[in-house]
Amino acid sequence: MTSKMFTKILIANRGEIACRVIKTAKKMGILTVAVYSDADAESLHVHMADEAIYLGPSPSRESYLLGDKVIEAAKRTGAQAIHPGYGFLSENADFCRQCAKENITFIGPPVAAIEAMGSKSAAKNIMEKANVPLVPGYHGDDQSEVILKKAADDMGYPVLLKATAGGGGKGMRQVWNGSEFSEGLAAAKREAKSSFGDDTMLVEKYLTQPRHVEIQVFCDNHGHAVYLFERDCSVQRRHQKVIEEAPAFSMSEDLRSKMGESAIQSAQAIGYRGAGTVEFLLDVDGSFYFMEMNTRLQVEHPVTEMITGQDLVEWQLRVAAGEILPKTQEELVINGHAFEARIYAEDPNNDFLPATGKLTFLQTPIESKNVRVDTGVRQGDEVSVFYDPMIAKLIVWDETREKALQRLSKALSEYRINGVTTNIDFLYNLATCEPFAKADIDTGFIEKNHDLIFHNDSQTLANELPMAALYLVLSQAKNAELAAAKTHDPHSPWNNTNAWRLNEASIHPFTLSHNDIEYQVVVEQKRQGVSSYYLISIASEGAVEITLDCQGNITGDLLQVSIDGYRSHATIVHCDNRISLYRQNGVFNFIHILPDCGDSTSDDAHGGLVAPMNGTMVSILITAGDLVEKDQPLVIMEAMKMEHTIRAPNKGIVDAIFFKEGEMVDGGAELLSLTAEEE
Ligand code: ADP
């Protein structure tokens, strides 16, 4: 095969990955064509590309998933190849076949490789023949309960029943002992049948503390294959990755090369070409087992790029154009440590419900060789209901895991978004919690450390409350100084905001709330020579009032304090009446409750009865004519591997329901109508 680099490619995707691919194409002097839907007409990826073709309405089924239209766009613009990104058409064998028919290069693996990895049991059969280790289990054709149960009894409990057609954690059931088997099997089959129309099951040994470790592989058309080491993606919520890192912690060179070789064997067993990821479960005893192979570029590929110094999109383009792999295995080395945190528009405190809205303020950490931000949005852009709510990927690098982790928490504290609820604080708390620093991590990490990550009520605020109050006093004084400097008489006593009263103490009372608990805080300013110190009294319902002796100053967004002789600091973000303190042990959010203004935290998150995202109607819990109470669950939708409960925003009567169970729902579509009733 002769190689000839493309002069123009089309990117059949949107958001950060479309921008990411365009960047590399530009660097290589390749022209780019973007495609877009109504919602994306002004998107960053469209502006970055040399040309763009409109596909259709916003729902992806009417735009980004229309293979015919994408191919037509490539033909119309003369693009010689299509980069599918991830998601959408990236693992669609029919689309790949159609590209070949039209003589357009699909920047990805051959059709047969995509098909081979489509079914979990077929993939396992192939891998078994190729001597790739599999989780002990049964993946045969005989589906009688007796055979399946015998397989479970023989391997010992717990076992995991999995739908062979599965995906998104559906049709999976853990069975802890033989007496639960029959019931578990029936439930898994029911779920598989309704989700995939196929209830074929496989039985696997259930690992109780596994890690998710995946290997990046690359193959060319000339018989070369390399692995670009591993990524640890064990930190997951409901089987979705949250923070990824490379290399994996506590990996011996021996295990690394064994897993790498196994991954190459897996890829070669299906005649692979291009970028692929082989996902393994790594058990506590160092055994590892093939789980699945993703036949595309992964979301988390940047951590591999950071530690290898390679541009994987460039590799993809070179391989697709027929070139040999840019590096041999011997030439590839690991340098340092990288983390990636996925910044999502979602509410971690409400079961990670996707959030939407306009990014009214967006400030990213400054990029450098240590900090990289892959994003597809700008300030003012809308996070719509139509697509994955990922806003950006924050990637950091440093020489060691410890240093890289410090960079991660610092960069997260510098990521400022307003207008849309995000998971940034959740990520910050994750990145700063002790078990994460100690790499005490398996796939159950978030459940196990839930209270620590979510700062549940046990949290004492001994330092944070006085800090927030002191910050308010100091920042008010600072603002007054700035304002005074602009007046004709900057030294006038009328400019003071130190609550100075003739013959009275300087008293500043505040109401601050944290996790919905209100605290009355009084800051009394005292003078000692030229400097000030503050007596801070804190009272809350049912608690003893305490008084602390404090000092402090603000430089930029850094607050330094001394509280009863204990010196510490926090990075402060103050927006409207919300004050966030980024501390070494997580972020603490306070609401400054202003007199008469009410509590602005009272959320309007229930926001009507439209679908908050594209998804499937899983379950309808009410019928037309029902009287429902405020917050009563009405319907359950599933999107992006997760179920979301939609609740009644107020008491009312259900007039009509516009969807049936199992139906696809477009984000923004009206789900049901409800006539409000007086409370
Ligand atoms: P899906 O395709 O539905 O996402 P996978 O087979 O990829 O399902 O598994 C998803 C996740 O489930 C894994 O990342 C892992 O956390 C967990 N898992 C899968 N198989 C096992 C197993 N045998 N033991 C323990 N956990 C497992």
Polypeptide structure, described:
It is a single chain. The protein folds into six domains: 8-107, Rossmann fold (3-Layer(aba) Sandwich), CATH 3.40.50; 136-205, ATP-grasp fold, A domain (Dna Ligase, domain 1, 2-Layer Sandwich), CATH 3.30.1490; 207-335, 2-Layer Sandwich (D-amino Acid Aminotransferase, Chain A, domain 1), CATH 3.30.470; 337-456, 2-Layer Sandwich (D-amino Acid Aminotransferase, Chain A, domain 1), CATH 3.30.470.20; 464-592, Glycoprotein, Type 4 Pilin, CATH 3.30.700; 609-676, Beta Barrel (OB fold (Dihydrolipoamide Acetyltransferase, E2P)). The chain is 25% helix and 33% strand. It contains 17 helices and 38 strands. Strand 28 (558-563) and strand 29 form a beta hairpin. Mean pLDDT is 90; it is low at 597-607. The structure holds adenosine-5'-diphosphate.
SSE inventory with pairings:
Elements: E1 8-11, H1 15-27, E2 31-37, H2 44-48, E3 51-56, H3 67-77, E4 81-83, H4 93-101, E5 105-106, H5 111-116, H6 120-129, E6 137-138, H7 145-155, E7 159-163, E8 172-175, H8 181-196, E9 201-205, E10 211-219, E11 225-237, E12 240-246, H9 253-269, E13 274-282, E14 288-294, H10 301-308, H11 312-320, E15 337-344, E16 346-347, E17 353-354, E18 357-358, E19 361-363, E20 371-375, E21 382-383, E22 390-398, H12 401-413, E23 416-418, H13 424-432, H14 434-437, H15 445-448, H16 450-453, H17 464-485, E24 506-514, E25 517-528, E26 531-539, E27 546-555, E28 558-563, E29 566-575, E30 578-583, E31 586-593, E32 615-620, E33 627-628, E34 633-639, E35 642-647, E36 652-657, E37 664-665, E38 672-676
Parallel strand pairs: 1-2, 1-4, 2-3, 4-5
Antiparallel strand pairs: 6-9, 7-8, 7-9, 10-11, 10-13, 11-12, 12-15, 13-14, 15-22, 16-17, 18-21, 19-23, 20-22, 24-25, 24-31, 25-26, 26-27, 27-28, 28-29, 29-30, 30-31, 32-34, 32-37, 33-36, 34-35, 36-38
The protein binds adenosine-5'-diphosphate (ADP).
